[in-house]
Amino acid sequence: MKVVLALGSNIGRRFETLQGAVDALFDAPGLDFVAVSPVYETDPVGGPPDQRPYLNAVVIGSTMTLGPRAILERALGVETAFGRVRTEPWGPRTLDVDLIMVGELLSDDPELTLPHPLAHERAFVLVPWSQADPGAVLPGRGSVAGLLADLDQKGVRLRPDLALQPPD
Ligand SMILES: Nc1ncnc2c1ncn2[C@@H]1O[C@H](COP(=O)(O)OP(=O)(O)OP(=O)(O)O)[C@@H](O)[C@H]1O
Ligand SMILES: Nc1nc2c(c(=O)[nH]1)N=C(CO)CN2
Protein backbone atom coordinates (compact mmCIF):
# COMPACT_ATOMS: atom_id res chain seq x y z
CA MET A 1 0.00 0.00 0.00
CA LYS A 2 1.17 3.47 -0.81
CA VAL A 3 1.64 5.82 2.18
CA VAL A 4 1.92 9.60 1.76
CA LEU A 5 3.11 11.75 4.68
CA ALA A 6 3.35 15.56 4.81
CA LEU A 7 6.04 17.18 6.95
CA GLY A 8 6.09 20.75 8.25
CA SER A 9 8.29 22.76 10.59
CA ASN A 10 8.30 26.43 11.50
CA ILE A 11 10.36 26.60 14.67
CA GLY A 12 14.05 26.01 15.28
CA ARG A 13 16.34 24.23 12.81
CA ARG A 14 13.59 23.56 10.33
CA PHE A 15 15.54 21.74 7.60
CA GLU A 16 17.45 19.53 10.05
CA THR A 17 14.13 18.66 11.67
CA LEU A 18 12.63 17.58 8.34
CA GLN A 19 15.68 15.43 7.52
CA GLY A 20 15.55 13.89 11.00
CA ALA A 21 11.88 13.08 10.47
CA VAL A 22 12.56 11.40 7.11
CA ASP A 23 15.27 9.29 8.75
CA ALA A 24 13.14 8.39 11.79
CA LEU A 25 9.99 7.49 9.85
CA PHE A 26 11.81 4.72 7.98
CA ASP A 27 14.03 3.63 10.85
CA ALA A 28 11.77 0.83 12.07
CA PRO A 29 10.76 -2.14 9.89
CA GLY A 30 7.56 -2.24 7.88
CA LEU A 31 7.71 1.03 5.95
CA ASP A 32 9.86 1.21 2.82
CA PHE A 33 11.05 4.49 1.36
CA VAL A 34 9.78 5.39 -2.13
CA ALA A 35 10.45 9.10 -2.72
CA VAL A 36 10.90 12.48 -1.07
CA SER A 37 9.84 15.83 -2.51
CA PRO A 38 11.81 19.03 -2.82
CA VAL A 39 11.57 21.43 0.13
CA TYR A 40 9.29 24.46 -0.03
CA GLU A 41 9.17 27.57 2.12
CA THR A 42 5.52 28.39 2.70
CA ASP A 43 3.44 31.17 4.20
CA PRO A 44 1.60 29.97 7.32
CA VAL A 45 -2.03 29.05 6.65
CA GLY A 46 -4.36 29.79 9.58
CA GLY A 47 -3.20 30.04 13.15
CA PRO A 48 -1.94 33.10 14.99
CA PRO A 49 -0.46 36.09 13.14
CA ASP A 50 3.32 36.68 13.04
CA GLN A 51 4.26 33.00 12.70
CA ARG A 52 7.51 32.23 10.91
CA PRO A 53 7.21 30.63 7.48
CA TYR A 54 7.16 26.86 7.34
CA LEU A 55 9.39 24.46 5.53
CA ASN A 56 7.15 21.76 4.02
CA ALA A 57 7.90 18.52 2.19
CA VAL A 58 6.15 15.26 1.35
CA VAL A 59 7.61 11.79 1.74
CA ILE A 60 6.18 8.68 0.11
CA GLY A 61 6.52 5.17 1.45
CA SER A 62 5.13 1.72 0.90
CA THR A 63 4.05 -0.99 3.31
CA MET A 64 2.95 -4.59 3.06
CA THR A 65 2.56 -5.11 6.80
CA LEU A 66 1.54 -1.93 8.65
CA GLY A 67 -2.05 -0.82 9.11
CA PRO A 68 -3.07 2.83 9.13
CA ARG A 69 -3.10 3.02 12.95
CA ALA A 70 0.45 1.72 13.18
CA ILE A 71 1.56 4.30 10.62
CA LEU A 72 -0.20 7.12 12.52
CA GLU A 73 1.44 5.97 15.76
CA ARG A 74 4.80 6.07 14.08
CA ALA A 75 4.12 9.57 12.74
CA LEU A 76 2.98 10.84 16.16
CA GLY A 77 6.00 9.21 17.80
CA VAL A 78 8.34 11.02 15.41
CA GLU A 79 6.58 14.32 16.16
CA THR A 80 7.06 13.74 19.88
CA ALA A 81 10.68 12.75 19.40
CA PHE A 82 11.30 16.15 17.84
CA GLY A 83 9.78 17.87 20.83
CA ARG A 84 6.64 19.22 19.36
CA VAL A 85 4.68 21.00 22.06
CA ARG A 86 1.02 21.43 21.26
CA THR A 87 -0.07 24.86 22.40
CA GLU A 88 -2.72 26.41 20.23
CA PRO A 89 -4.57 24.97 17.25
CA TRP A 90 -2.65 25.50 14.01
CA GLY A 91 0.04 27.22 16.08
CA PRO A 92 3.79 27.02 15.51
CA ARG A 93 5.41 23.63 15.77
CA THR A 94 8.88 22.12 15.57
CA LEU A 95 7.47 19.24 13.55
CA ASP A 96 4.09 18.28 12.20
CA VAL A 97 3.62 14.94 10.44
CA ASP A 98 0.26 14.44 8.75
CA LEU A 99 -0.87 11.18 7.21
CA ILE A 100 -2.26 12.25 3.84
CA MET A 101 -3.35 8.87 2.48
CA VAL A 102 -2.87 5.13 2.96
CA GLY A 103 -3.69 3.21 -0.20
CA GLU A 104 -7.34 3.58 -1.07
CA LEU A 105 -8.48 3.61 2.57
CA LEU A 106 -11.28 5.96 3.57
CA SER A 107 -11.96 6.80 7.24
CA ASP A 108 -13.93 9.53 9.00
CA ASP A 109 -12.69 8.65 12.47
CA PRO A 110 -11.51 11.93 14.08
CA GLU A 111 -8.47 10.11 15.46
CA LEU A 112 -7.51 9.02 11.97
CA THR A 113 -9.26 10.62 9.03
CA LEU A 114 -8.21 9.29 5.62
CA PRO A 115 -7.42 10.86 3.32
CA HIS A 116 -6.40 13.82 5.50
CA PRO A 117 -9.49 16.07 5.52
CA LEU A 118 -7.68 19.26 4.44
CA ALA A 119 -5.10 17.84 2.05
CA HIS A 120 -7.14 18.68 -1.05
CA GLU A 121 -7.10 22.40 -0.26
CA ARG A 122 -3.52 22.76 0.97
CA ALA A 123 -1.05 23.94 -1.66
CA PHE A 124 1.76 23.38 0.89
CA VAL A 125 0.91 19.65 0.68
CA LEU A 126 -0.11 19.27 -2.97
CA VAL A 127 2.77 21.21 -4.56
CA PRO A 128 5.52 19.08 -3.00
CA TRP A 129 3.48 15.90 -3.46
CA SER A 130 3.03 16.55 -7.19
CA GLN A 131 6.78 17.02 -7.54
CA ALA A 132 7.52 13.74 -5.75
CA ASP A 133 4.85 11.90 -7.76
CA PRO A 134 3.54 13.72 -10.85
CA GLY A 135 0.78 11.15 -11.36
CA ALA A 136 -0.51 11.34 -7.77
CA VAL A 137 -4.22 10.87 -7.08
CA LEU A 138 -5.93 11.81 -3.79
CA PRO A 139 -8.55 9.10 -3.17
CA GLY A 140 -12.04 10.54 -3.47
CA ARG A 141 -10.75 13.88 -4.79
CA GLY A 142 -9.00 13.15 -8.06
CA SER A 143 -5.60 13.99 -9.47
CA VAL A 144 -3.30 16.20 -7.45
CA ALA A 145 -2.42 18.13 -10.61
CA GLY A 146 -6.13 18.83 -11.16
CA LEU A 147 -6.64 19.96 -7.56
CA LEU A 148 -3.63 22.26 -7.85
CA ALA A 149 -5.03 23.94 -10.93
CA ASP A 150 -7.72 25.49 -8.70
CA LEU A 151 -5.41 26.58 -5.87
CA ASP A 152 -3.42 29.74 -5.25
CA GLN A 153 0.22 28.63 -5.05
CA LYS A 154 1.97 31.93 -4.51
CA GLY A 155 2.64 31.26 -0.82
CA VAL A 156 4.62 28.10 -1.71
CA ARG A 157 8.21 28.75 -2.84
CA LEU A 158 10.77 26.13 -3.87
CA ARG A 159 14.01 26.13 -1.83
CA PRO A 160 16.43 24.64 -4.39
CA ASP A 161 19.27 25.12 -1.88
CA LEU A 162 17.68 22.58 0.51
CA ALA A 163 17.47 18.97 -0.63
CA LEU A 164 16.32 16.17 1.65
CA GLN A 165 18.24 12.91 1.34
CA PRO A 166 16.63 9.46 1.38
CA PRO A 167 16.64 7.94 4.88
CA ASP A 168 20.01 6.74 6.16
N1 LIG B 1 -4.79 11.90 8.61
C1 LIG B 1 -4.33 12.28 9.83
N2 LIG B 1 -3.01 12.57 10.00
C2 LIG B 1 -2.54 12.95 11.21
N3 LIG B 1 -3.30 13.10 12.32
C3 LIG B 1 -4.61 12.83 12.20
C4 LIG B 1 -5.18 12.42 10.95
N4 LIG B 1 -6.53 12.22 11.13
C5 LIG B 1 -6.77 12.50 12.42
N5 LIG B 1 -5.65 12.85 13.08
C6 LIG B 1 -5.58 13.18 14.50
O1 LIG B 1 -5.21 14.53 14.64
C7 LIG B 1 -4.41 14.64 15.80
C8 LIG B 1 -3.34 15.67 15.57
O2 LIG B 1 -3.89 16.88 15.39
P1 LIG B 1 -2.89 18.08 15.31
O3 LIG B 1 -2.96 18.86 16.55
O4 LIG B 1 -1.52 17.61 14.84
O5 LIG B 1 -3.53 18.83 14.13
P2 LIG B 1 -2.78 19.89 13.34
O6 LIG B 1 -1.60 19.22 12.68
O7 LIG B 1 -2.51 21.06 14.25
O8 LIG B 1 -3.82 20.32 12.28
P3 LIG B 1 -4.14 19.66 10.89
O9 LIG B 1 -4.84 18.35 11.18
O10 LIG B 1 -4.99 20.69 10.30
O11 LIG B 1 -2.85 19.44 10.14
C9 LIG B 1 -3.73 13.33 16.03
O12 LIG B 1 -3.68 13.03 17.39
C10 LIG B 1 -4.53 12.35 15.22
O13 LIG B 1 -5.19 11.41 16.05
N1 LIG C 1 2.32 26.87 5.45
C1 LIG C 1 1.84 26.00 6.34
N2 LIG C 1 0.79 26.34 7.09
C2 LIG C 1 0.29 25.45 8.00
C3 LIG C 1 0.87 24.16 8.16
C4 LIG C 1 2.00 23.84 7.36
O1 LIG C 1 2.57 22.73 7.45
N3 LIG C 1 2.44 24.78 6.46
N4 LIG C 1 0.34 23.27 9.03
C5 LIG C 1 -0.75 23.59 9.73
C6 LIG C 1 -1.36 22.60 10.63
O2 LIG C 1 -1.03 21.33 10.36
C7 LIG C 1 -1.38 24.91 9.67
N5 LIG C 1 -0.78 25.78 8.74
Automatic annotation (TrEMBL):
What catalytic activity does the UniProt entry give for this protein?
A: 6-hydroxymethyl-7,8-dihydropterin + ATP = (7,8-dihydropterin-6-yl)methyl diphosphate + AMP + H(+)
- Please state every residue range assigned to the domain named 7,8-dihydro-6-hydroxymethylpterin-pyrophosphokinase: 4-133
Which pathway does the database say it acts in?
Answer: Cofactor biosynthesis; tetrahydrofolate biosynthesis; 2-amino-4-hydroxy-6-hydroxymethyl-7,8-dihydropteridine diphosphate from 7,8-dihydroneopterin triphosphate: step 4/4
Q: Name one GO molecular function term.
A: 2-amino-4-hydroxy-6-hydroxymethyldihydropteridine diphosphokinase activity
Please indicate which superkingdom the organism of origin belongs to.
Bacteria
**Swiss-Prot/TrEMBL keywords:** ATP-binding, Folate biosynthesis, Kinase, Nucleotide-binding, Transferase
Record EC number: 2.7.6.3
Under the heading SUPFAM superfamilies, the entry gives:
6-hydroxymethyl-7,8-dihydropterin pyrophosphokinase, HPPK
NCBIfam families xref list: folK
Write down what this protein is called. 2-amino-4-hydroxy-6-hydroxymethyldihydropteridine diphosphokinase
Which organism is this protein's natural source? Sphaerisporangium rhizosphaerae
What gene is behind this protein? folK
